Amino acid sequence: MSLYLSDVTLTYPDGEDRLTALDRVGLEVPRGTLTAVVGPSGSGKSSLLAVAATLVTPDTGTVTVDGVTTTGMSRAELTELRRRAIGIVFQQPHLLPSLTAAEQLQLMASIDGRSPARARGRALELLDAVGLAAQAGRRPHQLSGGQRQRVGIARALMNDPTLLLVDEPTSALDHERGAAVVDLLARLTHERSTATVLVTHDRTHLTAADRIAEVRDGRLRAPATAT
Ligand SMILES: Nc1ncnc2c1ncn2[C@@H]1O[C@H](COP(=O)(O)OP(=O)(O)OP(=O)(O)O)[C@@H](O)[C@H]1O
């Protein structure tokens, strides 16, 4: 099991009161499976991803990533866990304008202190895996929106994560490109044995998901197997 949330409650200050963003949420995501979490705006999807990413500590409940329960871990230990085990794909890939696709990925590895030659080899392998072998030398403005999103996906895989967290990857794409991105994520999930969580408000792309969980007002309905 690479992600296990048990009885997670998260609240935010709301005037005199507190707003419950996640209400006793339980979720298990085994390796090699893609779980889509769907729900309307404000339902708690981003909060769920932030907790799973260990960026936000819930009020109560436990978060287990890659077999490690995070309760009581220091900030440095959480940073190390994220570096080692978690990849995050953001809604917008936030690529650096002056770097080529390969360099965007290599940058991640140089931050991690890996050798440049190995980093380059891994970057090219991952760009090939997302269908961008021929675009490795292009800069962001020479890529389409869907291609930039795929660079963001490849970048999130540089540290060979066991947990891949994906935030609304299709929001800036048309239907066909959005569906292609979800299909790609499902394939990478199965090939690389990641536990993948994809949050979205849009159900129409999700045929490739293994399971779909619905979040409403901070409550998660048990994931159903996608049909
Ligand atoms: N930092 C914060 N401080 C206070 N309230 C917050 C904070 N972040 C989120 N909320 C509230 O918590 C609830 C859940 O928000 P969250 O962003 O997790 O939902 P969401 O489903 O991701 O929405 P969206 O699709 O609009 O991003 C909402 O009512 C939101 O207003």
UniProtKB/TrEMBL annotation:
Keyword set, alphabetical order: ATP-binding, Nucleotide-binding, Transport
Pfam families named among the record's database cross-references: ABC_tran
Entry annotated with the keyword ATP-binding: yes
InterPro entries from the UniProt entry: AAA+_ATPase, ABC_transporter-like_ATP-bd, ABC_transporter-like_CS, ABC_transpr_LolD-like, MacB-like_ATP-bd, P-loop_NTPase
Gene3D superfamilies: P-loop containing nucleotide triphosphate hydrolases (3.40.50.300)
Domain ABC transporter: residue ranges: 3-226
GO molecular function: ATP binding; ATP hydrolysis activity; transmembrane transporter activity
GO cellular component, one term: plasma membrane
Protein name: ATP-binding cassette domain-containing protein
Species of provenance: Streptomyces broussonetiae
